[in-house]
Specification:
D-Maltodextrin-Binding Protein, domain 2; 2 domains; eight-stranded mixed beta sheet; globular; Bact_solute-bd_prot1
């Protein structure tokens, strides 16, 4: 095969083994190693951490050698797969494309490998397993996980007379009204930043975007509609022009001028990655995080929330799928997962990694880990048209927020645009 015929031009020194003059494809026993190409989407710190793990794996055994490449362009991944020259292993930053790619035959199901090795998928949180499953088959291994919680400025809440975060949506609205401030016709502080797309909020209302029995998209589901109305009400109350003016003056998200760090937002929905950023850039900020508030008319929605995962997958027609499985199954084990997720500030999707001591010094991770472990966590439905569905929701949600389209019409337009894709892709 092409990788087994690679020229042995790279000289390496393995001090521990006392070897010299070996190529990457040579094992310590002098035999050939199977080389695999791994395209991963992480950049920056994520790329640095992944390189370390690849090096660790390459040093740990004599059978497989991994050539890693930071490749963030998903179109290039699909082009390579369609062209019949894919990498042996690749990653996706989230699961939104998984069902579509699996439906097109671009990804290999992993169930045979999982069964053969007795790979412990039960150690993954149920929502993480659901995120990489399509039509009963497993197409990826989750490596990292994200969820969103309510960040709140404790000093601003106390000043407004609140001694705890809001627990219900009804309380949230009261908090938002009292915490928001305007001066000379300009917003100086938003009680709640309403920028999150409503699917992050929909579990608070027991909202649904899909009816699996009827095989219909449900953007007009009462719970999802309520989530849209929650965020749009903030936009309409303060005015899109004023909010846009506030946004134009906001500092960079990853800097000390982050709008939550500077007090421009008293509350905001954000992921676990923000806490380390605040720890670095705003160490004196007196804040905490809490589960998403839930609609008091749906008490069963308490501690419900949304998660997504990043994942590893084997492209269809990969030259060396078994070698790729050997590496990916190693990479997704608890020990390697903990190293990688801590470096990225992501949550581990394995139950056994939740209480790992490595996360104890990561700001607010104990809150996020406890919340993510709720049995009420859900990913988006695994549907082959989900990316287009979300694009249409984003488009109409923006029109609704800006008062250009009524909520009912905007969500009906989503249904009209997306339902034909159901008939086309789910025969």
């Amino acid at each position: 095969m092409k990788r087994l015929l690679a020229l042995m031009t790279t000289v390496c020194l393995v001090a521990v083994a006392g070897l010299s003059g070996c190529s990457p494809s040579e094992g310590t026993g002098g035999g050939k190693r199977t080389e695999i190409d791994f395209w991963y989407t992480w950049m920056g710190d994520g790329s640095t951490s992944m390189k370390k793990l690849i090096d660790e794996f390459n040093r740990s055994q004599d059978e497989v050698y991994v050539n890693g490449l930071a490749q963030g362009d998903l179109r290039k991944q699909m082009t390579a797969i369609v062209g019949g020259n894919p990498p042996d292993l690749a990653s996706l930053p989230d699961e939104i494309n998984l069902a579509s790619w699996a439906d097109k035959g671009a990804m290999m199901p992993l169930d045979a490998y999982i069964k053969k090795d007795g790979y412990d998928m039960e150690d993954y949180l149920p929502a993480a397993r659901d995120a990489v499953t399509y039509e009963g088959k497993t197409y990826g291994l989750p490596l990292g996980m994200n969820t969103w919680m309510l960040y709140y400025n404790k000093d601003l809440l106390k000043k407004a007379g609140f001694d705890r975060p809001p627990e219900t949506i009804q309380e949230l609205k009261k908090y938002e009204a009292k915490l928001s401030e305007e001066k000379n016709g300009r917003i100086t502080r938003l009680g709640l930043w309403p920028g999150q797309i409503p699917h992050v909020w929909m579990q608070s209302f027991e909202g649904r975007l899909w009816d699996p029995e009827a095989k219909k998209v449900t953007p007009l589901d009462p719970g999802f509609k309520s989530a849209v109305e929650l965020t749009s009400s903030v936009w309409q109350k303060h005015g899109p022009e004023k909010i846009d003016r506030l946004l134009a003056g906001n500092g960079n998200y990853g800097s000390p001028q982050n709008p939550f760090a500077t007090g421009k937002y008293a509350m905001t929905l954000d992921g676990e990655w923000l806490a380390p950023i605040l720890g670095k850039n705003a160490p004196k900020l007196n804040y905490d995080v809490a589960p998403l508030p839930y609609d008091e008319n749906h008490p069963e929605a308490k501690n419900a929330g949304y998660i997504n995962v990043n994942l590893l997958y084997i492209p269809k027609k990969a030259d060396e799928p078994e070698a790729a499985w050997k590496f990916m199954s190693w990479l997704a084990k608890k020990e390697q997962m903990v190293k990688f997720d801590k470096a990225l500030g992501n949550l581990p999707p394995r139950k056994s990694a939740m209480d790992d001591p490595a996360f104890k010094d990561v700001p607010k991770f104990d809150r996020f880990l406890k919340y993510a472990n709720s049995e009420k966590m859900e990913p988006l439905p695994s549907l082959p048209f989900m990316e287009k569905y979300m694009q249409e929701i984003h488009k109409q949600n923006d029109q609704i927020n800006r008062g250009k389209v009524p909520v009912e019409k905007g969500l009906k337009d989503v249904e009209t645009k997306i339902q034909p894709l159901v008939e086309k892709t789910m025969k």
